[in-house]
């Protein structure tokens, strides 16, 4: 029994190490083998090897170095077998073979760039103009965020097969483009910035409101998105939207401790104990927002979203929230970043500022577009508006529909409770 428990603990350790190191491992391997798809396969092979060997030999002192060395050995073996298939593989294979006795530290030093972070470097590399914006975001969410195709599909409000095809095509396109997998500099880096910001934003969003599973948030993934945002701010100190995104993430993250009860249940924003909000993160966020606005970026999509978050952060109580200002900011955001999700959040803001009927009118417009028909927050919002309007029987139907659509256990429980509060 003890041996079985030890093996289970070792497996959990391996999986945890791989989740932490996966993106950095793929980033380093992509620089070595010049093929992001192959780098992902090699990283997965290293995990399989670890699952076979670590339960017998124990977890190594430096797990990442072990995984990198295992992946590199597989790369060398593969290139030896296929040396004559393509000249570039032969060249890379010889380079790798020449380096086989080099320490992991020396290999990593050779992969250094001015960004100094493999994960962020991989995002910039994968956000290549040869790919469509949608393909760039899907690929990097898979590689960096470690998100499943299902989670990415929900972020893009599309189907899982569509996302799977995008990722496969993106890998093939990068492989066929003859890229050197070097981090871009100067104007080329600036051209890729919008895609990079979108990826970091989507990683944070998935972490902040998990689409599936038992947890409302994924703190480690949120922290990773914030870390990438801070690196970008240091790397590009004159880009307003970099600071807008950083401000948004810092302020949103400040609410983590208040978003769930002791039992893990969801606590809506208007009912959260604001004394539990992290004031340090709020100060950081407000400072980043001030920097974005000083750089002339007040109307940028991320800066506007940060300004919305700041309205809540500055209100000492829910009753003091300036909903009319928030509604006006959503009107501006809709012009800067049109999307059905922005329209939904705008409807919520207008319902709080001007009454539930105003929100219901805007939801009717969204319904006619039929884009969010399977998106749980839409019936949840309608249920809330109807509840506030005293139309409890209709509200119950909407809350039940939202509960059936969501795949997050905590959110489902919250919505079922809201339905029950409407009575029979």
- Gross morphology: globular
Which percent range fits the helix content? over 70%
How much strand content do the residues show? under 5%
Alpha-carbon distance between the two ends: 50 Å
Strands of the widest sheet, in order across it, are 1-2
Number of helices: 20
Q: Could you give the count of β-strands? A: 2
Mean pLDDT: 83
How would you describe the overall organization of this protein?
The radius of gyration is 24 Å and the shape is globular. The chain starts with a helix and ends with a helix. Helix 16 packs antiparallel against helix 17. The chain has helices at residues 2-33, 36-57, 63-81, 87-98, 104-110, 118-126, 133-145, 149-156, 160-176, 186-208, 219-235, 240-253, 279-294, 301-314, 323-336, 340-354, 356-369, 377-388, 392-405, 409-421, and strands at 212-213, 407-408. The chain contains 20 helices and 2 strands. The protein has 424 residues and is an all-alpha fold. Among the domains are: 1-100; 339-424, Tetratricopeptide repeat domain (Serine Threonine Protein Phosphatase 5, Tetratricopeptide repeat), CATH 1.25.40.10. Residues 100-112 have low confidence and may be disordered. Strands 1-2 form a two-stranded parallel ribbon.
């Amino acid at each position: 029994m003890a041996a079985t428990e030890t093996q289970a603990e070792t497996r959990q350790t391996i999986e945890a190490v791989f989740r932490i190191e996966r993106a950095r491992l793929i980033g380093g391997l992509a620089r070595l083998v010049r093929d992001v798809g192959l780098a992902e396969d090699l990283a997965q092979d290293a995990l399989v090897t670890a699952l076979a060997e670590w339960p017998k030999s124990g977890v190594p002192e430096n797990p990442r170095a072990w995984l990198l060395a295992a992946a590199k050995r597989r790369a060398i073996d593969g290139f030896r077998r296929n040396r004559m298939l393509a000249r570039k593989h032969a060249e890379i294979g010889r380079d790798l073979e020449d380096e086989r006795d080099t320490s992991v530290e020396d290999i990593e030093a050779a992969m250094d760039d001015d960004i100094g972070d493999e994960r962020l470097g991989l995002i910039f590399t994968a956000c290549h103009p040869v790919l469509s914006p949608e393909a760039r975001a899907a690929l990097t969410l898979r590689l960096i965020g470690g998100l499943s195709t299902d989670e990415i599909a929900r972020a893009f409000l599309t189907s899982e097969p569509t996302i799977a095809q995008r990722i496969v095509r993106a890998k093939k396109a990068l492989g066929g483009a003859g890229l050197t997998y070097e981090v871009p500099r100067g104007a080329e880096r600036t051209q890729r910035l919008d895609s990079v910001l979108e990826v970091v934003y989507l990683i944070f969003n998935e972490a902040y409101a998990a689409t599936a599973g038992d947890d409302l948030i994924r703190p480690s993934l949120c922290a990773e998105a914030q870390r990438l945002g801070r690196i970008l701010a240091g790397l590009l100190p004159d880009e307003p939207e970099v600071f807008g995104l950083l401000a948004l993430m810092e302020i949103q993250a400040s609410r983590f401790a208040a978003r769930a009860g002791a039992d893990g249940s969801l606590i809506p924003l208007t009912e959260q104990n604001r004394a539990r909000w992290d004031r340090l993160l709020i100060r950081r966020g407000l400072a980043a927002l001030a920097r974005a606005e000083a750089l002339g970026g007040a109307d940028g999509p991320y800066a506007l979203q940060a300004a919305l978050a700041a309205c809540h952060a500055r209100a000492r109580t829910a009753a003091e929230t300036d909903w009319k200002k928030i509604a006006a900011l959503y009107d501006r955001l809709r012009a800067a970043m049109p999307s059905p999700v922005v329209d939904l959040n705008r409807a919520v803001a207008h319902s709080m500022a001007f009454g539930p009927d105003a929100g219901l009118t805007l939801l009717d417009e969204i319904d006619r577009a039929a884009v969010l028909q399977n998106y749980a927050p839409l019936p949840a919002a309608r249920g809330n508006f109807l509840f506030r309007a005293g139309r409890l029987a209709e509200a119950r139907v909407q809350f039940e529909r939202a509960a059936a659509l969501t795949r997050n256990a905590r959110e489902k429980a919250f919505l079922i409770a809201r339905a029950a509060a409407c009575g029979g």
